[in-house]
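Q: Hi! New to this. If I give you a protein sequence and the SMILES for zinc ion, can you show me the bound structure?
A: Yes, paste them in.
Q: Okay, here:
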Amino acid sequence: MKVNISPLPDQKRIFCNKCQVETNHLLKGEHVRRDYDEGGWIEILFRFWICAGCERATLEECYTGNRVRDKDGQQIYFSVYRPRRTKSDFTEKYFFKLPPILDKIYRETIRAFNEDLIVLCVTGLRALIDAVCKDKQISGYTLETRVDNLSNIVPQNMVKGLHSFEFLSSDPIHELRRPPSGNEIRLAIEVCEDLLNVLYELDYNATQNSRNQRRGILPK
Ligand SMILES: [Zn+2]
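A: Thanks. Here is the predicted structure of the protein with zinc ion bound:
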């Protein structure tokens, strides 16, 4: 039975949050809303998909309009998936001896990254490093000098790694010359996790269990 009234396909590959890979999805229903104004029309298509593997549902919202066409006159659709895709999410890790306030800063920083809240994520990373320095009684007038002084308790290459990220230096966050890219932040998070691992020990079992839970291998 044909379920789509739009010219868009009724089967396609979408990243499935449950299967954690791209899978075939089947269209189960569609609703189109068109609004008119002096500039012409805009259209929103609500498309209800089911993963052909795990049968979990995804809603796609497609946006287009009379002026949204490519050079050949073909209609262009911008789409958003709900719930949002977790493909590039960072998995939170667990540390044996992390003090509660550091744990909270770390987790909220990872969540900010996963929600694409870049400024908050960078602010969280700086707060995390600062809190580590305080917890380990590392002093210094600026964050940069405190990071320098971390070399008394962590390997020098780790300190060098932290210094390589401009957004982790002592300048206020609003004076950054350019916003850091997602990849730069991802690397910075990894260096910070290495720092926590050296000072507070990573709990590999808890980390693995958490990953398995996300993938539905263990019951929550
Ligand atoms: Zn699936």
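A: Residues 16, 18-19, 23, 51, 53-54, 56 surround zinc ion (CB under 6 Å). Let me know if you'd like me to explain how to read the tokens.
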